[in-house]
Write a structure and sequence with these properties.
Layout: H1 2-27, E1 30-34, E2 43-46, E3 52-55, H2 62-74, E4 79-84, H3 90-93, H4 96-100, E5 104-110, H5 119-132, E6 137-139, E7 145-146, E8 152-158, E9 161-162, E10 195-200, E11 203-207, H6 213-216, E12 231-233, H7 245-251, E13 255-258, H8 268-275, E14 283-287, E15 303-305, E16 315-319, E17 325-329, E18 335-338
Parallel strand pairs: 3-4, 4-5, 5-6, 11-12, 12-13, 13-14, 14-15
Antiparallel strand pairs: 1-2, 1-16, 2-3, 7-8, 8-9, 8-10, 10-11, 16-17, 17-18
Length: 340
Amino acid sequence: MIRFSYRCAAFLLLATVLAAPAFAKSREELKIYFIDVEGGQSTLVVSPAKHSLLIDAGFAGPRDAKRIVEALKAASVKKIDYLAITHFHGDHAGGVADLAKLVKIGTFVDHGPDTEDSPQAKELYAAYLKAVGHRPHVIAIPGQGLPFKDIEVQFLAAGGAHIENPLPAAGEANFYCASEPEPPADNSENSQSLALLVTYGRFRYLDMGDLTEGKSLPLVCPNNLIGRVDVYRMSHHGAYPDNPKALVWALHPTIAVMNNGEHKGGSPEAWQIVHDSPGLEGLWQLHYAADAGKDHNSDDNLIANAGMKSDGHFISVIVEPDGQWTIKNSRNGYEKTFSN
């Protein structure tokens, strides 16, 4: 019996040692899921320690809430630690109430009260506040962030305001600004959007909600306060002029992701600006933009939902602690890996 117990213990110890590297590796990955909510937005960020941040919740109704839950399962998390609503439009905040029925939400984050006062806007905002209830609620302030321990989440813009000082290693003059026309004044709810920067080691992901050009350009003009990013989720579903050259080219993204729908977003002008950005290695789309034409859509491998009817396919980004990261299309398994 003593000999048998010793061998069992030795076997268990060996199994633990052999399994440890794989387990440690899975815990050290940053995961980002661009969820298909058919022209709205919902992006799931899961830190190496399995703490989750959901940026927007798509449209009202069961479809988008269920797709978000499926993404949570794929990321092996059971709750949403932070739900950040970039702004109060139905394609971003409409799904909050439905989602709250399916999954536990820890803390709600937004830019403050809705700035629109139409009956529809009031109804949406009231439903959002009802879903928040007595849960923790944070008003985002540019320059501050969320208390993740293994990644950094910073607010760059919120409620029409933005950071005033450059981030570390940023601040260089942006010569693309000289060719940008003066943007019109904009006090829309889109202009109030949160802009968030997620950093893991050398990897940087930028999400700007539906931030319009008048509010995004001050982040890079006359000086680039953000610096370069690895992945840029195109603002406002790939709309023009809300992805201006002075912004995109200053960010110098390696990959851009467009959360467009079949007939929403995907502006040919914005697509071309991003496509031509120096150093870009791919413009990935959640949908084929049917109204943009073949010349202003990416290769089929880079489009998650290519047909007339969405099947809810997503785009994922997995970042390793050594700086290597992989972007993947769930529809066809196509992937591409980069190193920082």
